[in-house]
Design brief:
It is a single chain. By secondary structure, this protein is mainly beta. The protein has one helix spanning 153-165, and strands at 2-3, 17-18, 23-30, 35-36, 41-51, 56-57, 62-64, 71-73, 78-79, 84-86, 89-90, 95-96, 101-102, 107-108, 113-114, 119-120, 125-126, 130-133, 138-142. The strands form 2 sheets. Strands 1, 3, 5, 7, 8, 10, 11, 13, 14, 16 and 17 form an 11-stranded parallel β-sheet that branches. An 8-stranded mixed β-sheet has the order 2-4-6-9-12-15-18-19, covered by helices on one side. The longest helix has 13 residues, at 153-165. One of its GO terms (molecular function) is transferase activity.
Amino acid sequence: MIIEYKGMRPDVRQAAYVAENATVSGDVHLGKDSSVWFGAVIRAEVAPITVGDESNIQDLAMLHSYFDAPVNIGKRVTVGHSAVVHGATIEDDVIVGMGAIVMDYSVVGEGSIIAAGALVKQHQVIPPYSLVAGVPGVIKKTLTPGQRPQEGNAEMYIEDAYEYAKSPVIG
């Protein structure tokens, strides 16, 4: 469901797919070929949320801005199932694993992987190409571009998004 809130209308025109039961409200901009999957929530009442081109917000994920902390999701980012990004910046080519939490004012550098269930604390800055795991999240190693697992994740989700967009809803 797409909700205009206090005159702020989400811009979803360039998205490849927004699931019927996803909620997108307020000052939200979805980039070209992006996708928002089943049960995901993107709420921008007090600061904007931008999801970059070719990024995917997977099932049950939640993006929420904070008063002076917008959410900025870069290009080709995967925000995994049930992950939470709150008032944070995620740079290009990042994977935020299932159930991970990225807190206010934090920045996750390009090419990084936030492991499933990890917690990136408020104000934490993750350098590019870091593998972060644990609660609280710590850098376990530095990754090499092109050698990351799931390197083609964005392309797979774009393909799926366009297929879902043309699939009939039954019932």
